[in-house]
């Protein structure tokens, strides 16, 4: 069996499971910027594609790989894969659904607490000898505790559920909105209450996004969305940067429509030094707390993800339907 791997060789080697199938497979490694013609020259006869979650797997590649059986995202996202072309060929497209739920939930809480406690400016102030001045200022301005917050989750999939579980000990009120309301039993299990989207946006102190990128959700956080939020509220995005209109968020922060934002993902990636959210003026830039898209990349996440990838390839090679199929054309 031959596998075309679009991603970092070091990572795939480190997390490759110790199974006979994985060990014996011929592996062809290319990076995310490799032209399609070079991929085809190296691996047009490959049976499988393993792709970084942000990798592009275009129709041209899929159509010219006659033995291709499965394309597997290394992560949860699969929007870079041409699903139509895969379906036309009857190729399974799989993802690692829910694989990083606990990891992303932890990072989401980190961003929330980091904003509430103003951690980056406070760290700097201590290092620069302004501890007492900052402490005295914050006693007057006030510090909000989690238990005084209403947290709104947009989307209620694996990550949002994991987040709801971890928010419960803090004592905050947790609300959610999803495409359909969940059962009363499920709401009680996770300690959440349903709100219509406009009410959630306008009433919550933390608005956390947990939806995939689709034509309907791309740039869903626009000017109208941000103007609906409380001036004291924070936006949290650990999903995808494409969900946020960057210019609208810059305006919201600069004009004080919201208090701040915690962002693990920013579009486009990689984030450049001249990105509008990075180059906000002094006094505004500290309203954003960034992390470098690391929410879901814990060691445990990768171990589980790569076990899933190789199990899916082995299943397909044996004529079995792999798990976590998002498209198959059948």
SSE blueprint and pairings:
Layout: E1 2-6, H1 9-15, H2 20-24, E2 26-30, H3 36-43, E3 48-51, H4 59-63, E4 70-73, H5 83-89, E5 92-94, H6 101-116, H7 119-127, H8 131-141, E6 150-154, H9 158-167, E7 173-177, H10 184-190, E8 193-194, H11 197-203, E9 206-209, H12 223-228, E10 234-237, H13 246-254, E11 260-263, E12 288-290, H14 299-317, E13 325-327
Parallel strand pairs: 1-2, 1-3, 3-4, 4-5, 6-7, 6-9, 7-8, 9-10, 10-11, 11-12
Antiparallel strand pairs: 5-13
Structural overview:
With 330 residues, this protein is α/β, with parallel strands linked by helices. The chain has two domains: 2-99 and 298-327, NAD(P)-binding Rossmann-like Domain (Rossmann fold, 3-Layer(aba) Sandwich); 101-290, Rossmann fold (3-Layer(aba) Sandwich), CATH 3.40.50.720. Helices cover 38% and strands 15% of the residues. The protein is built from 14 helices and 13 strands. It has a seven-stranded parallel beta sheet, sandwiched between helices. The protein has a six-stranded mixed beta sheet with strand order 2-1-3-4-5-13, with helices on both faces. Helix 6 packs across helix 9.
Question: How do you describe this structure in short?
Answer:
By secondary structure, this protein is α/β, with parallel strands linked by helices. The protein has helices at 9-15, 20-24, 36-43, 59-63, 83-89, 101-116, 119-127, 131-141, 158-167, 184-190, 197-203, 223-228, 246-254, 299-317, and strands spanning 2-6, 26-30, 48-51, 70-73, 92-94, 150-154, 173-177, 193-194, 206-209, 234-237, 260-263, 288-290, 325-327. Helix content is 38%, strand content 15%.
């Amino acid at each position: 069996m031959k596998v075309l791997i679009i991603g970092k060789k070091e990572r795939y080697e480190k997390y490759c499971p110790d199974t006979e199938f994985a060990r014996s497979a011929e592996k062809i490694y290319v990076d995310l910027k490799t032209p399609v013609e070079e991929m085809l020259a190296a691996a047009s006869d490959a049976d499988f594609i393993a792709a970084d979650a942000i990798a592009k797997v275009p129709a041209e590649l899929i159509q010219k790989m006659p033995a291709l059986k499965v394309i597997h995202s290394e992560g949860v996202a699969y929007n870079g894969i041409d699903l139509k072309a895969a379906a036309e060929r009857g190729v399974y497209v799989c993802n690692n659904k829910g694989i990083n739920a606990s990891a992303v939930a932890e990072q989401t809480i980190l961003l929330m607490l980091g904003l509430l406690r103003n951690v980056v400016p406070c760290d700097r102030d201590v290092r620069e000898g302004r501890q007492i001045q900052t402490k005295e200022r914050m006693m007057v301005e006030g510090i909000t505790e989690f238990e005084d917050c209403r947290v709104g989750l947009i989307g209620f999939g694996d990550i949002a559920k994991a987040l709801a579980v971890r928010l419960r000990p803090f004592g905050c009120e947790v609300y959610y909105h999803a495409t359909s309301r969940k059962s009363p039993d499920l709401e009680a299990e996770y300690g959440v209450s349903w709100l219509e989207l406009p009410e959630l946006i306008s009433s919550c102190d933390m608005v956390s996004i947990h939806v995939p990128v689709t034509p309907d959700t791309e740039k869903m956080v626009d000017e109208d969305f941000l103007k609906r939020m409380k001036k004291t509220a924070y936006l949290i995005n650990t999903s995808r940067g494409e969900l946020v209109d960057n210019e609208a968020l810059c305006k919201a922060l600069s004009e004080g429509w919201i208090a701040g934002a915690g962002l693990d993902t920013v579009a486009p990636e990689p984030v450049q030094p001249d990105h509008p959210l990075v180059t906000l003026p002094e006094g505004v830039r500290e309203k954003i707390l960034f992390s470098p898209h690391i929410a879901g990349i814990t060691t445990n996440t990768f171990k589980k993800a790569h076990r899933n990838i190789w199990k899916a390839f082995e299943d397909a090679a044996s004529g079995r339907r792999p798990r976590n199929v998002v498209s198959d054309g059948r």
